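Technical note accompanying the year-one report. For the benefit of new consortium partners, we illustrate the data format agreed upon in the data management plan: each record pairs a sequence with a C-alpha cell string. No post-processing was applied to the example shown here.
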Amino acid sequence: MVKKRLDNGGGFPPITEADLRRGDTPTARAYATLVKDAVADAYNDRERQALTFFMGKGWKPHQAVAIVASLQKESFLDPGAVQDGGGQGRGLAQWTATDPRAATYARLHPGKSILTASFAEQLEFVNHELHNPVLSAQKTLTDRSYQNAGNDLRQSVALADAVTIVTKKYERPGVRGQVAERQKIAKEIYDYWSKVKGVFPTTRG
C-alpha cells in the first residue's frame, strides 16, 4: 500500500517524461507500482464504505456484498464511470439520462442529476430504489420492479442467491453469463472483508 511504503521512507523517486515513455526502467516501474497501489487503496476505501453503508441500512452482510459486487462489475465503484464502448450508462449503477429512474432522482432532488451525484448520494439512491417504486415510462411512481428486487433480496439467506437476485432483478445486464461472474466477485469481496476486523458483525447473516 502507498501509505505504508511512504511511511517506511519509500517516497516517489524522481521521474521524467522520458522515463514514462520508455516504461521499462527501474524508476518507471517503481512509479507504476505506486500508482497501482494508490488505485487499489482508493478502491478498497470505496468498497468498505459501500459495505458499511448498506449494512447500516439494515442489509445483512451477504446481501450488502451482493449489491456491492454488482456495482463493482457495473462501474468499479466509480461514481463518474462511463459505460464501456461509448454507451449511455453512467455512475455506480450505470443509469442513463433517459431512464425514468434518473427522472425519479431528479424529482426527489430538484435541480440535481443522478449522473453527476456524489458517491454517497448514488449509494443512497441505490438503496432508495431497492425500497421504493420509481417512475414508470408514463412518469408515475408505479414501477415497483426494483422495490420487488429489494424485497426478494431481503429474503435471501445465501450469498449466491443474493447475487442472482441483484443481477437479474436490479441491474439486469444485457450480457449473458453475468450471474456466475458476479457471484465470483461477491465471494472474493466476502472472503476478503471477512478477514478484516470490524467490517462484518461477529454474528454474520
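Partners are asked to follow this layout when depositing records. Confidence is low (pLDDT under 50) at residues 1-12.
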